[in-house]
Amino acid sequence: MAITSHIRQTNSAAGTGDTEDVMTKTSVASVAFGAVPDGWPVLPDVALHGLAGDVVRVIEPHSESDPAAILVQFLVAAGNVIGPGVNCTVESTRHGLNLFVCLVGETSKARKGTSWEHIRRICSKVDPAWAERRVTTGLSTAEGLIAEVRDGEAVQKDRRLLILQSEFASVLRILQRSGNTLSPLLRAAWDDGNLGTLVKHNPLKATGAHISMVGHITRWELLRYLSDIEAHNGFANRLLWVCVRRSKCLPEGGSVPAAEIAEIIRRLMAVVEWARSVGALKIKRDEEARQLWATIYPELSEGEPGLVGAATSRAEAQVLRLAAAYAVLDCSRRVRVEHLRAALGLWNYCSASAQYIFAGATGRSVADRIHDTLENAGAKGMSRTQLRDLFGRHESSRQIDEALADLESRGVVSRREESTRGRSRAVWIATRAKRPKRESDAARSCGDPAARRA
């Protein structure tokens, strides 16, 4: 659940424009949580607070990466570098600064990996040992994950671990295997970091591990491999879902000024030193933030039906962690109202992303892919033969027919008969084609700075 009224409040309070102007920019938020008319979410300026916002402002002009990808991956990496000492609580539940994020974009065109390289460059200068030994790109078994942070090691006392999965679809395929215990282990890693296996001869245990995760995936792979079980068992709602796409064309891009990066590194180094000096710190909200939290909490905790609701039903905890991360990056012992507003702004983007990704999804991969493809095909539609070829003939005719019947019964596709020289043929069309690319989007893809700010 997103807080749409809060975007109007916070942008005005932050001095980004008068209330009427901000309301115009976010007027569709009541339908799609801050999304623009083509359904793509908008990252509000209020989310670009403090050091995290400055990282985006330094890197974005010199990168084709989506600003949202830069922002969330910096928050994930910084939270992992800082470690488990700083935390916050909801009632008796402890929440650390470890975040799970999944960037959803179309293959290499979304520049997901490019955005991570900028963040890795910064963090490797702040904590070289972390960058060399505490970032892993392999995640296949529960035992392998625990081994990275297990108890009883004479040498390995660092319980921090950032999992970087550039092919997150492979993780989702592993979770589908019968008897695989990786899903409950990842959920425990997000919760409190107390991990264990029940292997009889070689049991493994990890206590208080500080595990963060960044995944990269396409929307099609996500809808195909995120099973109904994983969508509803609490795995999906521990992830922040972030739509990303290439922000502009920069044939000579990538050269961020060294002096600006050096200043970011210096500031992050100061944050890490401060966090380690305060030790085990429980961050609380100040009075103004408490009042804002009381105002938005009912809407934030309301929840939604379907796959969108399953992916966003841990909104309160996610906002709490994000607000704490913004506070720590300000070297603050208290979550102030600007930290909570920044967290809500970013959460709104993630909520809008989940709406864009999962809205209309059935949870059944064949039907979802057919619907997505027909939306892109527009009014010309696709024949039954074309739909069969879409799957490389790896799906049976029965599965395709059942998917089409399901989509037709829900009113999202329809069929028309077209005359040919011989028998007529059935053509399937989506009842509402995807919106055409807006002029500002076209300009943005070619690197028009004015369009990117629009």
Topology of this structure?
Blueprint: H1 4-13, H2 19-25, H3 29-32, H4 50-59, H5 67-82, E1 86-90, E2 93-95, E3 100-104, H6 112-126, H7 128-133, E4 135-136, H8 142-149, E5 160-165, H9 168-175, H10 182-191, E6 195-196, E7 205-206, E8 210-217, H11 219-225, H12 228-232, E9 239-243, H13 258-278, E10 281-282, E11 284-285, H14 287-300, H15 306-312, H16 315-329, E12 334-335, H17 337-358, H18 365-377, E13 382-383, H19 384-390, H20 397-409, E14 413-418, E15 425-430, H21 439-445, H22 449-453
Parallel strand pairs: 1-10, 3-8, 3-9, 4-5, 5-8, 11-12
Antiparallel strand pairs: 1-2, 6-7, 13-15, 14-15
Helix pairs in contact: 1-17, 4-5, 4-13, 5-6, 6-13, 11-18, 14-17, 15-17, 16-17, 18-20
The level of helicity is 40-55%
Q: How big a fraction of the residues is strand?
A: 5-15%
Number of strands: 15
Extract low-pLDDT stretches. 4-37, 433-454
| Shape annotation | globular
Mean pLDDT: 81
Q: What is the number of helical segments per DSSP (H or I, 4+ residues)?
A: 22
Largest sheet: 5 strands, parallel
Radius of gyration: 23 Å
Report, as a whole number of angstroms, the end-to-end distance. 25 Å
What is the structural class?
Answer: alpha/beta
Reading side by side through the largest sheet, how are the strands ordered?
Answer: 4-5-8-3-9
